[in-house]
Amino acid sequence: MIAARKKGHVTFAHGLNAEIVGTEGQWRRHCKLTFIPAIGACLRVLDAFDGLDLCQFFLVLPSRGQVYRRCQRLVLFGDTVSVEFLPLAAGDRNLAFLEPASDDFFEV
User: The whole model's pTM is what?
Assistant: First the structure.
């Protein structure tokens, strides 16, 4: 996977496998991380997300270990979501529900 780095952001040519997870773990969807500016990200959601509360959620990079950021939706356009990164809340340090659901989706 080739990433193009420009001033203040990174663009992934084929997207980076990731997941979005509801803030209390009640839902999880696969997505591709396509663009990362310094303060947020652009995601392409691969699973249906109709009816989900996409105001705030976690962006999880399970193929990189347990790496996550709390996000807030800025723009929703089709299957593409632009988000801004939020500071972690005090209770965000031990979130067992953010563990990957399965490894079969992610390629190493």
Answer: 0.74
